[in-house]
Amino acid sequence: MSVFIVGLSCVAGAAAIMAAITYFLRKSKSPDEVAGSENNTLSGQVFGIVGGLHAVLIAFILIGLLDNANSTRDESYREADGLIAVDWAAKSLPADARVKIQELTYGYATTVSQKEWPRMADGGNVENLGWTQLEQLSTVVSGVEVSEDWQKSRQQEATEKLWEVYEARQERLNAVSNGGVSPVIWFALALGTLLTVGLPLLFGGTKLRTHIIVVSTLTATLTLLLFAIYQLQNPFTGGAAVGPGAFQSALERLK
Questions:
Q1: Rounded to whole angstroms, how far apart are CA atoms 22 and 118?
Q2: Residue 154: in which H helix or E strand, if any?
Q3: Mean pLDDT for each consecutive 10-residue tract of the chain (255 residues)?
Q4: What DSSP assignment string belongs to 12-54?
């Protein structure tokens, strides 16, 4: 099912539930309680504090998750580009080393795109095959014996680019292990949302239709933000998932 349909269903469902709660609470009050607005000032002050703190919490979490997703996408392209640079630099090396490096770079890109990416999307542990292939690449590159200066410069470049691949790979795997929102933060988000949407139920002096619209709109907005946080927890899955496009493109160029 499309993430947009799921999100719209969650938002509409939460808004409908709060609209029903608001309607029945207003109907259960006496006319004097509905018309009275003595508590509106105090309730409004408390609502401003609670709502403001909750908005700050949501904003910080969303910004952090968005930055993590963008950084993960950039690192995936840096990793793939570094792999291609290693392959290009190897074209200047002796034939036996060149062929071995080309096989290993192609194999590594295949491992990442076809084996590691599905595991990262599921939140599972990535096997050590990718690390093994990089270790083999390092061994081959560093073990090449060359005499020409231009070949030595190509070998040095391959070594530097391979180190960039190492760094970008580690950042990608860290995004999986360090991603997500902790249970404590989810508890704060859930409780803060309930308090934020519950306080307007205490307001009086407004028309029933206006009261329902205000509470439903607030509920829909907060539900939408919580849904966005949930979708952005793992940068490799959800509506804003980082795909293996960088390595799929790399495979086309490494053939």
A1: 44
A2: helix 149-177
A3: 84 92 78 57 80 92 89 91 90 86 92 90 83 92 81 86 92 78 91 90 75 90 93 82 88 85
A4: HHHHHHHHHHHHHHHHHS-HHHHH--TTHHHHHHHHHHHHHHH
